[in-house]
């Protein structure tokens, strides 16, 4: 019988990404009760949180580039196309803290991302630039560096004697950090088989169009489900 190691990966459910934060996603706080319900009642072997955790001078902040505007302007940051954002989730600030209503009592592992000011990190698995050309990575060796999350999950699954890994992804925002995380996840393997990755879409909120985000995920081999198929 196939033994599955099931993970709920909660992406960036932080003060900075909910109304009142420095980079708010509309209605972002509305997912917190469902995130808690899934964590407690979804039948997962493990719950993991990712946390955006930037230095104050991070290169993705428009404030670090004279005359540039957040949300509007793009730059090339060490060879990678980078949208500029407002200062957000700066380490040591309440903006970087997890939403106070998020139940973290069952969380065994937290992965912090975006700590290198030279590169952004949308995915909980890798810094941006993972798909950059080899020559560019040779010039900027920090591009696409692993956060260690995939190795951690593999080790936990092996310790549990599991045959395969399944990961459900929720959080903020659907079309940025959730999507990058899920798409990187399907590229990882355990025991020679890809991680099976799904996004629970009603436990996410998007910055842009949800339908476009869902189509993009499906095209990348990510499953898209509703929480009603998880909570039974």
What does this structure look like?
This protein is α/β, with parallel strands linked by helices and 232 residues long. The protein has a single domain, classed as Isochorismatase-like (Rossmann fold). It contains 5 helices and 10 strands; from the N terminus they run βαββββααβαβββαβ. The chain has a 6-stranded parallel β-sheet. Strands 3-4 form a two-stranded antiparallel sheet. Strand 7 and strand 8 form a beta hairpin. Helix 4 packs parallel to helix 5 (210-219). The radius of gyration is 17 Å and the shape is globular. The two termini are 22 Å apart.
How is this structure best summarized?
By secondary structure, the protein is of the alpha/beta class. The protein has helices at residues 32-41, 134-139, 149-159, 174-185, 210-219; strands spanning 4-11, 46-52, 74-77, 80-83, 107-113, 164-172, 189-190, 193-194, 196-205, 223-225. The strands form three sheets. A six-stranded parallel beta sheet has the order 5-2-1-6-9-10.
């Amino acid at each position: 019988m196939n033994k599955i190691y099931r993970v709920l990966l909660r992406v960036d459910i932080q003060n900075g990404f909910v109304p009142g934060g420095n980079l708010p996603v509309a209605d972002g706080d509305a997912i917190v009760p469902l995130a808690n319900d899934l964590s407690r009642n979804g039948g997962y072997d493990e719950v993991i949180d990712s946390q955006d955790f930037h230095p104050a001078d991070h290169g993705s902040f428009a404030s670090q580039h004279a005359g540039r505007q957040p949300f509007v302007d793009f730059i090339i940051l060490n060879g990678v196309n980078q949208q500029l954002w407002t200062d957000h989730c700066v380490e040591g600030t309440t903006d970087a803290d997890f939403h106070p209503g998020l139940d973290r009592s069952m969380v065994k592992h937290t992965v912090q991302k975006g700590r290198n000011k030279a590169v952004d990190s949308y995915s909980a698995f890798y810094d941006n630039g993972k798909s950059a050309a080899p020559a560019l990575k040779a010039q900027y060796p920090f591009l696409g560096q692993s956060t260690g999350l995939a190795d951690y999950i593999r080790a936990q699954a092996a310790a549990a004697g599991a045959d395969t890994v399944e990961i459900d992804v929720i959080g903020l925002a659907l079309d940025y950090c959730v999507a990058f995380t899920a798409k990187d996840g399907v590229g990882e393997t355990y025991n020679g088989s890809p991680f099976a990755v799904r996004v629970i879409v009603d436990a996410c909120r998007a910055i842009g169009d949800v339908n476009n985000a869902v189509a993009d995920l499906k095209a990348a081999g990510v499953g898209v489900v509703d929480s009603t198929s998880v909570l039974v």
